[in-house]
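Hi L., both proteins are below.
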Amino acid sequence: MTETARPRRRLLVISVDAMSVVDVPFARTLPHFARILEGSWGSAEAIYPSVTYPNHTSQTTGRTADGHGIYANEKVTPGERVPDWFWDARDIACPTLFDLAKEQGLSTAAVGWPATGWSPSLDIAVPEIWDRAGLEPTLAVLREAATPRGREYVDRHAHEIGWDRKHRFGRFNTAVAADILRTDAPDVLFLHLVDVDSARHATGRFTTEVKEAFERVDGWLGELLAALEDAGTAAETDIAIVSDHGHVEVGRVLRANALLARQGFVRLDADGEVSSWDAWVHGCGLTGQLHLHPEADETTREKVLALVEDWVADPEVPVQAFHPLTDMHEDYGWSGPFLGILEGVSGTAFQNLWDGRWLIDRFDAEYEFLLSQHGHLPEQDIQAVFAMTGPSIETGRRITRCTVTDEAVTFAHLLGLEIPDADGRVVEEILRPAPVHQDAVGQEAVSQDA
């Protein structure tokens, strides 16, 4: 007998942003989550920073921030009240799964996936991007950042974008993804759903609103599974649920740049806007990334670092540690245009702003910010979740621990791809054994490309 033909492989990856392992017991009571969790699942450690864009980029590159270059959600732009996010796929400094898939002739799609705008390799991209000015400006920039085929889906489903105080993409992203699965049946589709994360930010980690968000997402999972059945691709599709971080309850907001302004390292004009600066703290959730102006001299550098040491020693300033860039690179594979990382006392959220009060307590009458947050060091608090089911995946297997970079390497393996210089490994324990076939002389052999 000749070697058996390699089976068709398809992959559907669904990010349920901010889902953690402690959510699994409740998720298993929901019909469509339960169907996926019947496969293999366990905890996945985020990269630093434990925020959305760096981790979702790791899930498509297998690299930490040192390798892919997406060091935060937002780009460092001192003085900008609303910095630009890392919308653009061209900011990624290494190959993505979409690049590798294109080279091998696989068809790809991404809906709402971070850092996929203006993608050079996706066949269908409907990226996550918005304009705070409103729905129409958001639709304009969404169409601009999408691929030509993606624009067709944007126009078809634009009415499903929700907008009250801000964008709501869950219903829209699901409708687009289900339509793509039925109509184009791509080999690879990545989808990002943020409802659970949004509910946690607004109401806390474990609230009625979070429960309702899970129930809503479960209904959307049902639509996606039905789309696979309608397309006739369900039997050949491996399905993953991934996440990017847990959440920590917020106790206070720290505006470190207001402290820098008091010490003269940030200078303001007559209107209270930033006119120049020597040092800047780029807020990244529960940590702050300390940045020094490229033209600052060594004396300024020493003064800034001395001030940070004072913050750590001062019990009135909720900064418990400073981690130099060299340590962050060695311990977490993190790099960026910074001196290092300010780690807040538990529950301290960093903001980029430089005006107003520098510290606002959760029980202060002026507090109107997020009730839970992330951006902490990866090993802290509850972990994200990784779950898979499908023809390549073992049933009932529990993963002890993996990382988000491992997820990407595993996805590549399932598609017959290899990530160069990956920082992760294949999560072998969830994979079914390769099929056995008869070779040309009748001897049993394991297919090398199964």
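That was the first. Here is the second:
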Amino acid sequence: MNFYPRIFDKKPKLTSRIPHDEQSATNKLAHEIKQFLPSNIQERPFVLICIGTDRSTGDSLGPLVGTLLKERSIPNLHVFGTLEDPIHAVNLSEKLSYIEEQFPNAFIIGIDACLGRVKSVGIIQIADGPVKPGAGVNKDLPEVGDIHIAGIVNVSGFMEFMVLQNTRLSLVMNMAKTIANGIHEVTMMEKAKFIPIDWGKEQTL
């Protein structure tokens, strides 16, 4: 979990924000992610690092996204950080070392939950540069990603740990589905029409 007290006032040309419940949120998210992809993305491993823990509702956004995408076995997308095998403060450095060894020159998207202003809760931010896990709770952890996606799950400013524990799971789950669908669309960009995945149903191949 990270924390941006002035999350939308910095580098406006390099940051986009999308309400997770907007009708076209998935397509907008995919479009914004595509803008950040390098021209040689086809030649580089595409890695998703989903940060968080299943032990805290608010901090489960990353593992939920990772689980949704991992279960669909999307070709050419390497997903790390799930509900079963989360990436968090304790194992982050170890996991990053493994990923760097296994996927040199990878293009990495870091995904994490964050806290922000009241009016920004439910917003998904896509930004250039790495995410800084643990910044909101004064933890010094390695930065993650060439770009990052952060979901604002609750309000910052007071007893952040308690706020995360009392975050509504329905909000976090809906945000996770939007992010997962957006990333899925990016990986399927060669198709003429994208159909959002219904995560509640089994998919046919």
